[in-house]
C-alpha cells in the first residue's frame, strides 16, 4: 500500500494526506463540547488542513470536464467560502453559526467529495479496493446513506445569532 502511494504524484500525496488528517481530527474540533484552547488549536489545525486540501485540488486535473477542472473542484470554492464565513461568524460572536458552518463543511467537503474519490477508476478506489467493485459500491452506498441521514436530521432548536 505504501509503495503504491509513493507512485502517486506529489500533489496527490499532499492532497490525500491532508484530507485523511482533516477527516480524522475534524470531529475533535467540530463536535467537542468544551470550547477551550484545545478546541482552538485543533480547529486551527483542521482549517489549515482544509485549506491544503482545497488548494492542492486545483493542481489535480485528471478529470477534465470544464477546461482543466471537474465538478469536484466546486468543493474547493465551497471550502474557501465556508472558512471565510466561519471565521466571520466567530469574530462577530456568532458561535452557533460558526459551528454550523464548519459541521456543514466537514460533512460536505470531506464526506460527499470523499465518496466521489472512491468511484471506480479513481486512485483511491484502486488503493483501497483493488478490483473489488461490488465491495466498493457497497461501502459508497453505506457512506452516502449515513451522510443523507446526518444531513436530513432536524436541527435542535437553537437561535443562531
How is this structure best summarized?
The protein is built from seven helices and no strands. The chain has about 160 residues and is mainly alpha-helical.
Question: What this model shows, in words?
Answer:
There is one protein chain. With 161 residues, this protein is an all-alpha fold. Helix content is 71%, strand content 0%. The chain has seven helices and no strands. Helix 3 runs antiparallel to helix 4 and helix 5 packs antiparallel against helix 7.
Q: Write down the domain tally.
A: 1
- Overall shape: it is globular
- Cα radius of gyration in angstroms: 17 Å
Chain-averaged pLDDT: 81
Largest sheet: none
What characteristics describe this protein?
7 helices, 0% strand, 161 residues, mainly alpha
SSE topology sketch:
Blueprint: H1 2-6, H2 10-30, H3 37-57, H4 74-91, H5 95-117, H6 123-129, H7 133-152
Amino acid at each position: 500500500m505504501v509503495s503504491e502511494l509513493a507512485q502517486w504524484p506529489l500533489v496527490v500525496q499532499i492532497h490525500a494526506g491532508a484530507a485523511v488528517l482533516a477527516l480524522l481530527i475534524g470531529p475533535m474540533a467540530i463536535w467537542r463540547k468544551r470550547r477551550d484552547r484545545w478546541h482552538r488549536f485543533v480547529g486551527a489545525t483542521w482549517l489549515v488542513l482544509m485549506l491544503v486540501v482545497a488548494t492542492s485540488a486545483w493542481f489535480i486535473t485528471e478529470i477534465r470536464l470544464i477546461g482543466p477542472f471537474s465538478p469536484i473542484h466546486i468543493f474547493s470554492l465551497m471550502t474557501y467560502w465556508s472558512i471565510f464565513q466561519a471565521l466571520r461568524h466567530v469574530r462577530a460572536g456568532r458561535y452557533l453559526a460558526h459551528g454550523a458552518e464548519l459541521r456543514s463543511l466537514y460533512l460536505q467537503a470531506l464526506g460527499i467529495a470523499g465518496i466521489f474519490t472512491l468511484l471506480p477508476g479513481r486512485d483511491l478506489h484502486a488503493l483501497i479496493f483493488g478490483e473489488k467493485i461490488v465491495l466498493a459500491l457497497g461501502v459508497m452506498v453505506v457512506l452516502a446513506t449515513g451522510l443523507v441521514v446526518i444531513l436530513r436530521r432536524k436541527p435542535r432548536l437553537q437561535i443562531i445569532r
